[in-house]
Specification:
This protein has helices spanning 2-22, 42-58, 73-80, 96-102, 110-113, 138-147, 162-174, 186-195, 205-213, 260-275, 277-285, 295-314, and strands spanning 31-35, 62-66, 88-93, 114-123, 125-129, 153-156, 179-182, 200-204, 218-222, 248-255. With 315 residues, the protein is of the alpha/beta class. It has two domains: 30-122 and 248-314, 3-Layer(aba) Sandwich (D-Maltodextrin-Binding Protein, domain 2), CATH 3.40.190; 125-222, D-Maltodextrin-Binding Protein, domain 2. The protein is globular, with a radius of gyration of 22 Å. The termini are far apart.
């Protein structure tokens, strides 16, 4: 009888072990929020806002860690390979989708290997040129590009990134080819744009517009479907006949397979953070826009961007 009881107890422990494991508290120590770009860009700034407030809400350090390279896929793949326990997260934008799709011989599929956690903010983009470019409108820019086919250059963050897609759209609209110059982040790109080493870029509104107001760059169009409320006089690239539109959606992701209770907890905490008046004021000041906080809306939005990226790469 005692042997039977002992065997029954051992079996019960084996059955209960996985349940006990899932019942462990979250988080278990410091959380790393990986940022795929160099410090100073908007994705980095948003990540640090989230990390700072999550530290207070989770009661453990949430550390933003920059790992740039390969258009953001180095960081994304590192997080995808991390243990799916919510201790390693990724702050990325929808730019990862076309980049991952366009890398040669890449098998990385962010839609399958990363789990959406929470939308943070959308970032409108603006096409800016160095003052040496003799163009004040998109029509003048296209005419200049046609007259300088093979000579003009366009800075971007790598194959498939939003700004790379904008460069390609300009090439198609003008019927010419440009030199594509790749950078590991927007800050070093802007250094070359400001010195005229490169001539144009589709950059974020909050980073580029102060430079435009100082007369260091010239803004020609925004890269969103609709005009940006804070820049009502700037046409969209679509209005100017350039088939391009995007809103870089910055969001938090976890490795695929992360338990749903952990994702739900993080989603609730980040949604609450983004609803705080002080955070909303700061995000508005960055020129970003907020969106639906639920996980399903985020998944649908990224699926739509994934399909659009696939169509763009076929062109």
């Amino acid at each position: 009888m005692l042997n039977f009881v002992a065997r029954f107890a051992a079996a019960a422990l084996l059955v209960a072990a996985p349940l006990l494991g899932h019942a462990q508290p979250y988080p278990r120590g410091a959380v790393t929020l990986v940022v795929p770009y160099a410090p100073g860009g908007i994705t980095d700034v948003l990540a640090r806002i989230v990390a700072d407030r999550l530290t207070q809400k989770l009661g453990v350090p949430v550390v933003a860690e920059n790992r740039s390279g390969a258009g953001g896929t180095i960081a994304a793949q590192a997080v995808a390979r991390a243990k799916p326990d919510g201790q390693t997260l990724l702050m990325h934008s929808s730019a990862i989708l076309p980049v991952a799709m366009s890398l040669p011989d890449s098998t990385f599929d962010p839609m399958k290997e990363l789990a959406p956690v929470a939308f943070v903010a959308g970032l409108p983009s603006v096409l800016t040129v160095h003052p040496s470019v003799p163009a004040n409108t998109m029509a003048e820019l296209l005419a200049w590009l046609r007259a300088n086919s093979g000579k003009a250059n366009c800075g971007n963050l790598g194959e498939g990134a939003n700004d790379h897609q904008a460069c390609k759209a300009l090439e198609r609209a003008a019927g010419i080819q440009m030199t594509h110059v790749t950078y590991r982040g927007l800050p070093p790109l802007n250094i070359d744009l400001l010195t005229g080493t490169i001539q144009m870029n589709l950059g974020s509104v909050p980073v580029q517009m102060p430079l435009v107001k100082e007369g260091k760059l010239r803004a020609l169009a925004v890269g969103t479907i609709q005009r940006v409320a804070t820049l009502p006089n700037l046409p969209t690239m679509l209005e100017s006949g350039v088939q391009f539109d995007t809103l870089a959606k910055n969001a938090v992701f976890a490795p695929a397979g992360t338990p749903q209770p952990i994702i739900a907890r993080l989603n609730a905490e980040i949604a609450a953070i983004m609803a705080e008046p002080a955070v909303r004021t700061r995000v508005d000041g960055l020129g970003c826009v907020l969106g639906a906080p639920d996980v399903e809306s985020l998944r649908v939005a990224f699926q739509r961007d994934w399909e659009r990226a696939r169509e763009n790469l076929k062109r």
